[in-house]
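Lab meeting notes turned into a lecture example. A postdoc, R.K., suggested we walk through two folding results consecutively so the class can see how the record format repeats. The first protein's sequence and structure tokens come next.
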Amino acid sequence: MSETNAAPQDDAPKNDAPETSAEETAEVQATPEFEPIPEHLRDEALDGHQIKKLAEERIAEMQAELEAANDKALRLAAELENTRRRAERERGEAARYGISGFARDLLSVADNMAKAIELAPEDPSSMTKEGLEALVNGMRMTERELIAVFERNGVTRIAPKGERFDPNLHQAIAQVPGGGLPKDHVADVAAPGFVIGDRVLRAAMVTVSTGAEAQPQEG
């Protein structure tokens, strides 16, 4: 009769719980255990009256901050409005009185012109040679004073005779034979020009050389 080998039986109790890895075990062991909140602190945290009081205090602080910010904004707005009005007033005054200094300087020129007219006789034919010379000298002095007033106020006179024609500063009214001047040079100035800074107030009225000599007229 053959013997049958029976499977060995494990008498140890079986554990149906899933196996836990070493990493999971270490993680569980590393997790800190939080202590429960003490009873007196838990009661204090849940005190509704204290929460309401703190909320009211914070609301009061925020309202005070808001009022301060609004007050500051109103002051800034008022200051900006005052600045705008002041700037408008200054612009208006500059437009009305901007030439006050220039006009004040011209008063002396006007006075000298009036004196020269008073000294001139009503009948020019009765004027002596000395009187005529005095009148002319007075007019020349008045012109020099006028030019000085212009220069003090930034106005420069342009008298470009002999200079190269510049269309930015000169206005040609005619072309004339060279007369010894190169082509496109100012032969004569009919009326001087004036500039203030880089701005042309009036271009100089000039005649421009053609560079060619005048042809002799046949008799």
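The second example is placed directly after the first for contrast:
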Amino acid sequence: MPLKAVLFDMDGVIVDTEPLHRKSYFKMFDEFGINVSEELFTSFTGKATLSVCQELITLFNLNYTPQELADKKRINFKYLFDNDSDFDLIPGVRNLIENYHHNGIKMILASSASMNTINWVFERFDLEKYFAGKISGADLKQSKPHPEIFELAAGMSGEDKNSCIVIEDSTNGIQAAYSADIFCVAYKSIHSENQKYDKAQKIISDYNEIIYETSTEWFK
């Protein structure tokens, strides 16, 4: 089947929010008096904030709700989002999005981020006009690595999943695409350390490697 749709993760794929999330999380950890190791924090990559907060409550026996932790983290993130001058799109991703759009490829955003964060990013970088739909993992019952988000994204595109590509950067996201049985491109960046790419069909470090003229060849 020909390539018809691309399902994008957001954090670490479209925007470099990973450093902002890291700062936001560790400030929240300090505010609640918990000591999170690098190994544990790495395991959270790609998961929805509420799922992470539920894990923290269980692991550290905290007398708070997941929403209370998530609200603190979100306040920290919004402050950094508005004030960090280095925050920008991942190099090359705007050209990639415009290339797919020009060639009639449907694009769906499928991110574990909250819909508020997704909308902030889309407004700041004027991305709304390119995408046919957006899904927030925070609104779903299951978080990545569960395949639900990509199964829904493929359905939202209106295309057969065999005509879709997922672009991901995290172990959990790649596993979600693998479990959904959708072709996955792993974007390997300096902000996606200690992630596993073995279940992706392609591994790239430059978006020029997957422009329409190249990626469409994989589906002939």
